Amino acid sequence: MRAIIYGSGAVGTWVGCRLHQRGVEVDFLGRGPHLKALAEHGVLLHEPGGARRLSGLHAAESAAALTAPDILFVGLKAQQLPPLRDELRRLIGPHTAVIAPQNGVPWWQFHAGSGPYGGRAVESVDPGGRLLAGLPGDQVFGAVINKGVHITAPGELSFHTAPNSSLVLGAAAPAGAERVAELLDVMAGPDWPGIAALDIRAEKWNKLLLNVAINPLTALSGAYSGEAMRHPQGAALGIRLIEETLAVAHALGIRLEVDPVQRIQRARDIGMFKTSMLVDAEQGRALEIDAIAGAVLELGQLTATPTPALEAIYQAAKVLDAALARKRGQALGDPAI
Q1: CA nearest to 206, candidates 159, 146, 162, 161
Q2: 139 part of a folded domain
């Protein structure tokens, strides 16, 4: 069996290491010091039981020489996918399983759907519907990855305790349902339980509730997740954001039985760790705000569901995102910025 990890960040590296240990031939794609260290020295895993190194890993900056694998794990943020559609499509053979763990509303939200929104593109994550039209949705498997993993230095991963650590996997279309168990067998295990989702869209939205409530606020404030939700105003805002997102989900026919107050309490209990959006803001990278908040706003407008708190925090986060883009342009010496 062959796998390609397209985007070897923390989660992609972790999944690729697991597959490598299961005897899967893995190609790690990425760039920068982390990929260089991975290629030269392997990965040093700082696990609760001690540190260990995995060596003999294959890494490359280009997919040009690679052929379609059995598993294509797309470890990129949602906003990175549209420009890479054609290269991703080239790597998808007739039997390739495409694992899509992106945060936020997925581009395949309405793939294989019926009703008034079936076949509709979510413009906030898929401008012009290029992904929906150009990638085989029947081969896509949505994933919710509950695992606290971070790159602490090039070629090194560390882990923090995450509640309900698991891999939730489900097919984006009925045609792929029979392959879920096979994929979980090779990716999950006793140390990282695999859960076959009956409704992967509901699972994605269930995770989205906390992403919406916490990620933009931490990026804007610099607060850690638990710190933001322990603050009275942070908790109150988080509850409103969950309530509005739940209303949009229900308008789309996605039934989630969630108590917003209890969900925020869980976020407080998670403790002091940085959300991925806070890390991106600190490192000057683009924010995944359109997938996490912009797409919910878009679908709220589609279903005539009011989302005033979400709109306010989305607009504030977009200002931050633009400022980060300006700073990246200045660092590259772009005179137009």
Answers
A1: 146
A2: yes
Residues 275 and 190 in one domain: no
- Which residue among 36, 147, 207, 318 is the active-site one? 207
Number of domains forming the structure of the chain: 2
174 and 276 co-located in one domain: no
Which regions of the chain are under pLDDT 70? 161-163, 331-337
Q: What pTM, to 2 d.p., does this model score? A: 0.94
In the numeric block, the tokens 């917003």 are attached to: 260
DSSP 290: I
| Judgement on whether residues 180 and 221 belong to the same structural domain of the protein | no
Question: Is 309 within the bounds of a domain?
Answer: yes
CATH number at residue 268: 1.10.1040.10
Mean pLDDT across the chain: 93
In a shared domain, residues 180 and 254: no
Q: What's the angle, vertex CA 190, arms to CA 35 and CA 209, rounded to 5?
A: 70
207 is catalytic: yes
The burial class, CB within 10 Å (0-12 / 13-18 / 19+), for 292 is buried
Under DSSP, is residue 25 helix (H, G, I), strand (E, B) or coil?
Answer: strand
Strands of the 148-153 sheet, one edge to the other: 50-54, 43-47, 156-160, 148-153
Tokens of 274: 């940085």
Residue at 309: amino acid letter = A
Cα atoms found within 13 Å of the Cα of residue 278, Cβ hemisphere only:
19
Stated as kind and residue range, the H or E segment containing 142 is strand 140-146
| 36 falls within a domain | yes
- Residue 189 backbone phi and psi in degrees, to 5: 175, 180
Supply the pLDDT for residue 85. 97
Identify whether the C-beta of residue 286 lies closer than 8 Å to the C-beta of residue 280.
yes
Q: Containing domain of residue 228, as a range? A: 203-325
> Who's near 135: CB < 8 A, 6+ residues apart?
85, 88, 89, 92, 98
Judgement on whether residues 190 and 307 belong to the same structural domain of the protein: no
How far is residue 205's CA from residue 314's CA, in Å, rounded to a whole number?
Answer: 17
Q: Are residues 171 and 24 both part of a single domain?
A: yes
- Is there a single domain that holds both residue 234 and residue 298? yes
Instruction: Give pLDDT, residue 266.
Output: 86
